[in-house]
Amino acid sequence: MKNSQNIKEQVKMIGMDFGSTTSSAMIAVAGVGMNSVTGRMAFSAPEIVYRSNVEFTPFRGAEIDASAIAELLDTWLEKGDNIFSGGVIITGLAALQQNSVHIAALIKERIGQAVIATVDDPNLESWLAFMGCAALLSRHFKNETLVNLDIGGGTTNPAAGQNGQVKTTGCFYIGARHFQFEPGTYRLINISEYGYSMLSHIGVTNEIGDTLGVDILNKILDLYIEALKAIARGSLAFFESDIGQRLCQTSFILPPNVDSPLITFSGGVGELIYKITENEPIPSTTFYGDLGIDLAKRIISDPFFSKQITTIRPENMGRATVYGLTLHNTEISGATLFLPDTSALPLNDVPIVARLSMSCDLSDLLNSISVVAQRSGKACIQMLPVTDSEGGALPASLQQIKTLGDRINQALATLTIDLPLVILVPGNFGKALGNYATDWGKSSAKLMIIDEIPDRNAQFVNIGSPYRGVVPVSFYGIY
Question: Is the pTM of this model over 0.85?
């Protein structure tokens, strides 16, 4: 999240997380104004004004309970009107339920500009958890690679970052709730399809109604630890096995030349890990009806993880995803936008079809816009700054802006499109570029240019409604 000064207006941001076991919400306020150092529009340091209670994610049989979700939404949204930006994430086993798409629609009715991510976008959760849990710590250890393991009920979402920036992400079906128990016992009341795969791998045939013995419980936890170590080490061998392939949703590779990263934890299991190490009271055996407490204890006792746990503690643990969603998911545009028709906003779920250099040639633009022309609805091109020999971004010159604008104009004239085309640019020259690209308004193309947007490796973007001359920009489909 950006820091700023000379703030005159305040906006509200909301994040909501529906996970395999629990759900929660958070609302923050932040100022919007000009940063006196960079000269850019920016958010001030945000202030959390509302943290919901952590609620058990409501299920009705095998499906998420839509009516109970609606009641939660009503309760949370009472605390926040006039939302500037919002994000909702439906993760783990909750995202696998058939009616999760209907839950997403229910949320969208209430927060039209919200980014909504489900199982189709697992790496967003990894990115958010890192930003919410470990970004500050990563900036402190700026010369080290830090891997955050976000362990919840259904998945483990790893992300590796350096100096506060995420480099790689992944997602694995390793979580505490693949085996559900009658609370206080090890009597099985539900097993996920991935839980059955794990039982088959260790050579047992337990069914619902059985009570897990200590030996079987230890074999399951051994498998969990083996998988988590492989993730943290960036080792691919485990995930080339049959069970490893079954548990892998998206793969995870450490950045080059990294073999001993720092490790932090977040998610429900991560929160338990740090509570136990701080000698805080924790619930009794299978209190949550899953393996969360047992898994946390096994991670703490494992020599590979134990030293890191006692020496490195991140700023947020259990609510890292919703914290990251609320505070880090949205960027704010600059004030020199090219928006000839603001009635087209908000514009949600816009696919990013290309990421091009500011110095791209006409053929690059023609190829990208031809992809746009084949799509229906809307599309986005992300422009990247020209860099120096060391990879540092260089400011765009007037000649570069004019040349790029002329090339966009030629491409639009060559390939006529009748859909909104959003172009994201890194500097504060959106209006100038738009004027050159439309030959000062002569082109009829539905073009929007949003300025001062940093590079994000993403597949989709949401452009919110204008507010005081700026717009919120949220990315998802992180890769």
Answer: no
